[in-house]
Design goal:
The chain is an alpha/beta fold. The protein has 5 helices and 9 strands.
Length: 222
């Protein structure tokens, strides 16, 4: 598995009152962090012929059908963004946080490196999201300042990775996702996915698991 070496920047703010729990932020050594450099074409074939048919029937069949229907009803043409229909469906599926697949995928990616080749259940979805981010990025800004709010308090150990797919937004006021912590992130590898998102109004930028960040400031709201 390959790792990007360029460090992006994070400014971090947390409320002074007690949060739900203290969560360590580090290099997430157990995460599935492959960026598929040099093997994306081969992996794409495996996904289409093997992993996706298997996972759709065993892991997230009903959720996939719902996401596919939503994309089709909107009459979207993902080919104009250098995406396939499967890429668009994967983004829609991931961004619908009311589906079980959302939290299940995040947990599996964060801790799945050791069992990726054996029992990891999301090879297709992991690849489709990574590949979609990488296909969308070239036509977007090289660097973007985005925000991520959270309900938890974090213990920081720079440099860091978020350890899974990380939803952020160009909007700073999405307090429905938490008021305890707010990350101000300069991402170099994240891509805008709002066009295919369940919530397009949130202007979502999706950050891949392998992006590294350097913390440049931490502050507390008094």
């Amino acid at each position: 598995m390959t790792l990007m070496t360029t460090l992006s920047f994070v400014m971090f703010a947390t409320a002074v009152d007690a949060a739900k729990e203290d969560i360590p932020l580090n290099m997430a050594p157990d995460s599935v962090d492959d960026d598929y450099e040099g093997c994306s074409a081969e992996m794409s074939k495996l996904v289409n012929k093997k992993y996706l048919p298997s996972e759709k029937s065993d892991t997230f069949a009903e959720d996939w059908r719902k996401a596919e229907k939503a994309i089709q009803e909107k009459g979207m043409k993902p080919q104009f963004d250098n995406l396939t229909m499967n890429h668009a469906i994967a983004i829609r599926l991931y961004t619908d946080n009311k589906l079980n697949i959302y939290s299940d995928l995040i947990k599996a990616v964060r801790a799945g490196k050791k069992y990726y080749r054996t029992t990891f259940q999301y090879r297709a979805l992991h690849f489709l999201l990574i590949d979609a981010i990488q296909r969308l990025k070239p036509k977007q800004d090289r660097e973007m300042t985005v925000y991520r709010r959270a309900r938890d308090k974090f213990n920081l150990n720079p440099p860091i990775r978020f350890g899974s797919f990380t939803s952020t937004s160009s909007e700073s006021d999405l307090t429905q996702y938490g008021t305890k912590s707010c990350f101000v992130v300069l991402t170099k590898y994240g891509a805008k996915v709002s066009k295919y998102s369940k919530y397009p109004e949130e202007n979502e930028v999706l950050i891949p698991p392998y992006e590294k960040f350097r913390i440049i400031k931490e502050s507390s709201d008094k």
